[in-house]
């Protein structure tokens, strides 16, 4: 396969999966939005899985458990705080056993405040609605 920019991929997809090849634009860019499953875009699923894997790599050395569902596993703020601590190499305050939504939100706010103090810009990969992603 030859891309518009002159790059050539092997006939077998050049090492890319079938979905990876479908998600690539004619120029070879990797984040082309494709509607394959109704209202969900494949690239959002790819980005979510990639980010989940990255989070787990950061949390592994500190023993903060495994994230399998970002929405559920980061919702109480504890793993999010652990992630920020691992990246910033400093301890943050937390409510160790949040009992209600207010305490969970306080933990999340602690992590977000620490990121803001380090001028970390947050970028989303899609619009999240209760129950699933919204395509744009």
Automatic annotation (TrEMBL):
Keywords recorded for this protein, A-Z: Actin-binding, Repeat
Start and end residues of each Calponin-homology (CH) domain: 45-136
Gene3D superfamilies to which the protein is assigned, alphabetical: Calponin-like domain
Domain of life: Eukaryota
SUPFAM superfamilies in the record: Calponin-homology domain, CH-domain (SSF47576)
UniProt-recorded Gene Ontology molecular function terms: actin binding
Coiled coil (UniProt feature): none
Protein name: Calponin-homology (CH) domain-containing protein
UniProt organism field: Rhipicephalus microplus
Lineage: Eukaryota, Metazoa, Ecdysozoa, Arthropoda, Chelicerata
